[in-house]
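Page 37, continued from 36.
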C-alpha cells in the first residue's frame, strides 16, 4: 500500500492506494491510515469535496474503498488560531454597550471555521467593536449566542461582554424570545398551518444533514418545535391532485433552535426550501400554466436556500427593555415571489 504526502499552495495533499482489506467504509479506512485525522474530520473533508478516487470526487463517507484505486485527500492550510478583524459592510439595526443586532447578508458565515477563516460576521464585528466581544463563545466564536446558516439572511444578536452573553444564552435556552422566519418552498404543506414537533438526528447517509428520527424513543437527538403558517400559495403542481400548490410562502416560528431545523422540518413535510443545495436539490419544480416555464427558470437560478430571519424579539439581558426588530425580505426573495405570484 502506497501512502504519500505532498504540499501545494492549497495545503497538504495525502494519497493512498486502497488495499483489499481496507474495510467497508472509506472514512474509517482513512482515519485508521492517518491517526492524526479523526473519523469526523475525514467525514467533514469528504463533505467539503476534498477527497477524490482516481481523480473523481468521493461524495459519501460510507462508500466502500475500491481495491487498487488511488485516493487523494486535500487538507486546507493551517489557519490562524484567532480570527482577524476585517472591515466588512454590516447592516446594524441596533447597538448599545451590551449587544449588537445585525441584519446579516447572504454569503456571510457567522464565525470562522476550518477553510473559512475570513469574511465572517465575527471578523466584521471584531473590527467594528474594536475587539469588545464576549469571550464565552471561545476564540473562534466571540460573542456568538445563536447562529443562522451562511446563506440565510436576516437578524442575529451578538453579545459584547460576558454578562450580556450569559443573559442572552438563558433566553435562548428557555426559548423565551420571538423568532420568525419567512420561507419560500417548492410545493406546500398539506395543512395550511400546524405545529411540527419531533426529534431531529444527524442523517446516517449524509452527515451534513439532519432528519426526523424514525424511532425517537431509541435514537439520540434533540426535540425540535416549529409552528408554520401558509401566507401565500402559488400555482398548481403539474400532475398532482387538485389543490396541491407548486410553491408557497410560509411564516415559521421557532420554539427551539436546532441546526437546520426549518430546512429539515419542511423537507420532511415534502416542501423543501427553494434553492436549498443540501435538502432540496433532489426534486424538480413542476407547475402548470402560462408562467410555469419562467417560474421554473427563476427557481433553478436561485442561488441559495430561500430563508430569511425576519423578526427577532427579546428582553434586553441587562436593561430589561423589551426589544423587537423586523427585517424586510431581501431583494432576491422578493423578486422570486413576484415571479411566483404570476402562476
Amino acid at each position: 500500500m502506497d501512502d504519500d504526502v505532498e504540499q501545494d499552495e492549497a495545503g497538504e495533499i495525502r494519497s493512498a492506494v486502497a488495499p483489499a482489506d481496507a474495510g467497508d467504509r472509506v472514512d474509517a479506512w482513512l482515519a485508521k491510515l492517518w491517526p492524526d485525522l479523526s473519523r469526523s474530520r475525514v467525514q467533514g473533508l469528504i463533505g467539503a469535496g476534498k477527497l477524490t478516487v482516481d481523480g473523481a470526487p468521493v461524495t459519501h463517507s460510507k462508500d466502500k474503498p475500491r481495491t487498487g484505486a488511488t485516493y487523494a485527500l486535500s487538507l486546507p492550510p493551517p489557519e490562524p488560531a484567532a480570527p482577524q478583524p476585517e472591515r466588512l459592510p454590516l447592516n446594524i439595526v441596533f447597538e448599545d454597550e451590551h449587544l449588537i443586532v445585525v441584519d446579516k447578508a447572504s454569503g456571510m458565515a457567522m464565525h470562522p471555521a476550518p477553510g473559512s477563516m475570513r469574511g465572517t460576521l465575527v471578523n466584521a464585528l471584531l473590527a467594528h467593536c474594536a475587539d469588545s466581544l464576549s469571550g464565552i463563545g471561545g476564540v473562534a466564536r466571540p460573542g456568538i449566542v445563536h447562529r443562522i446558516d451562511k446563506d440565510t439572511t436576516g437578524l442575529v444578536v451578538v453579545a459584547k461582554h460576558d454578562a450580556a452573553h450569559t443573559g442572552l444564552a438563558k433566553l435562548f435556552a428557555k426559548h423565551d424570545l420571538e423568532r420568525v422566519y419567512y420561507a419560500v418552498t417548492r410545493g406546500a404543506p398539506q395543512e395550511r398551518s400546524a405545529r411540527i414537533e419531533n426529534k431531529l438526528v444527524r442523517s446516517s447517509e449524509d452527515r451534513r444533514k439532519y432528519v426526523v428520527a424514525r424511532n425517537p424513543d431509541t435514537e439520540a437527538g434533540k426535540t425540535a418545535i416549529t409552528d408554520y403558517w401558509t401566507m401565500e400559495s402559488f400555482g398548481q403542481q403539474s400532475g398532482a391532485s387538485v389543490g396541491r400548490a407548486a410553491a408557497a410562502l410560509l411564516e415559521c416560528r421557532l420554539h427551539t433552535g436546532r441546526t437546520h431545523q426549518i430546512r429539515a422540518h419542511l423537507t420532511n413535510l415534502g416542501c423543501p426550501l427553494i434553492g436549498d443545495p443540501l435538502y432540496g436539490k433532489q426534486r424538480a419544480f413542476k407547475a402548470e400554466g402560462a408562467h410555469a416555464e419562467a417560474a421554473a427558470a427563476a427557481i433553478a437560478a436561485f442561488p441559495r436556500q430561500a430563508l430569511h430571519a425576519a423578526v427577532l424579539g427579546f428582553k434586553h439581558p441587562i436593561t430589561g427593555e423589551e426589544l423587537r426588530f423586523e427585517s424586510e425580505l431581501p431583494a432576491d426573495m422578493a423578486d422570486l415571489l413576484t415571479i411566483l405570484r404570476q402562476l
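The first helix runs from residue 26 to 33. Flag for discussion at group meeting. The helical segments are 26-33, 39-47, 121-128, 162-174, 261-268, 292-301, 331-340.
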